[in-house]
Amino acid sequence: MAQIELKHVKKVFSEKMLGSVVAVDDFNLEIEEGECFSFLGPSGCGKTTTLRMIAGFEDLSEGEIHLCGRPVSIKSKNLYIPPEDRGLGMVFQAFAVWPHMNIFDNVAFPLKVQKVPRLEIKKRVEQALKHTNLTGFESLYPGNLSGGQQQRIALARAIVTNPKVLLLDEPLSNLDPKLRESMRFEIKELQKKFNFTIIFVTHDQSEAMALSDRMMVMDMGKIVQIDTPRNLYNKPINRFVHNFLGKSTFVKVNLRNNKVYPDGDMTQTISCKIPENAAGKEKMVIAARPNAINLNKNTGFKTKIEKRVFLTDCTEYYVKIGSQLLMIQTPHRIVFSEGEECCVEFAETMWYDDDGNAAEEERNRRQLI
């Protein structure tokens, strides 16, 4: 059963200098009960706006939103249920804890607004603090706690109302890398205990892939692809998704007489199978993950090492392929020196149209809104 449903949802913003921008464009989306579903995309793609419309902080320009089987926003009927009546928990990027309240009062606040009896408040706050590892901190104030502990306060406050849906708006972006990793597991454990549905908004693909059952990649207000983390990474629908999820290497190529030449060099071919969708095309882009490219001394496209960068988990090599600089990642056991001759083989490639820079220019414009 779909617990969250968006039907033809649209949101338009107007800005004096830049004009109208369609932040969310004809969204149709269903999220199942108990699912952890991530909205993923660059700044300005519309992911936070979509979350705010689900929460009730933004009204729709068009469309409908249904939560747990009931309509909460229908623009054509002027139906709008306020945030406090939607039965949602929410954790923001800025922890949004009140510095003048102790931990107990911070977590109890939404229950007091709902006029829950005092004894019930005490019981539910104690449970929420227990599940977020904050037992014993009730009388302390947020200013005495670390960033991770303050984030746990926000989580405790979100789950204390027993929500069926938990909305997370980049909740880990203000934490250091180690703490972010541990908090991912804590959020997943909370979901197992309470079986709520999670919508997780982030621009960090590693967070989304670690937490999600399914992910939605957005671009310029539109849904680009929805799938499992594994399928999105291994089968990206276009160049944008390939580039956004993980590290990517792209090579512009020219197709002549069923052969593949890198842009800027018509003397050497790249050995890879030309797909059926390339028929009749002269220019395309081949894409590969940097760690899936074979760097060796004997077979493949002949070039040389332009630059070497030693990292903790791999070595990055940069080589010229025609007029382009290609990044390759290898295990540390594969060693080349800068300036040394080498060969490059593409074991796994995906092919995309060469769509120019128009899309990137529009993404940059949207970030100003």
Describe the 3D structure.
- The chain is an alpha+beta fold and 369 residues long.
- Helix content is 25%, strand content 35%.
- It has two domains: 2-240, P-loop containing nucleotide triphosphate hydrolases (Rossmann fold), CATH 3.40.50; 247-353, OB fold (Dihydrolipoamide Acetyltransferase, E2P) (Beta Barrel).
- It has nine helices and 20 strands.
- The chain has a six-stranded mixed beta sheet, sandwiched between helices. A five-stranded antiparallel beta sheet has the order 2-1-4-5-6, with helices on one face. The chain has a five-stranded antiparallel beta sheet with strand order 15-19-16-17-18, with no helix packed on it.
- α2 runs parallel beside α4 (147-159).
- The longest helix is centred in the middle third of the chain and has 18 residues, at 177-194.
- The protein is globular and about 80 Å long.
- The relative contact order is 0.12.
- The mean pLDDT is 89.
Helical region count? Answer: 9
List the secondary-structure elements in sequence, H or E: EEEHEEEEHHHEHEHEEHHEEEEEEEEEH
Largest sheet: 6 strands, mixed
> Termini distance?
36 Å
Q: Overall mean pLDDT score?
A: 89
Overall, the morphology is globular
What is the annotated CATH architecture of the largest domain? 3-Layer(aba) Sandwich
Structural class: alpha+beta
> The CATH topology of the largest domain is what?
Rossmann fold
**Approximate strand percentage:** 25-35%
Name of the CATH homologous superfamily of the largest domain? P-loop containing nucleotide triphosphate hydrolases
- Tell me the domain tally: 2
Question: What is the CATH C level class of the largest domain, in words?
Answer: Alpha Beta
Question: Helix amount, in percent?
Answer: 25-40%
Low-pLDDT stretches: none
Quantity of strands, as a count: 20
Rg, rounded, reads 25 Å
Strand order of the largest sheet: 7-8-9-3-10-11
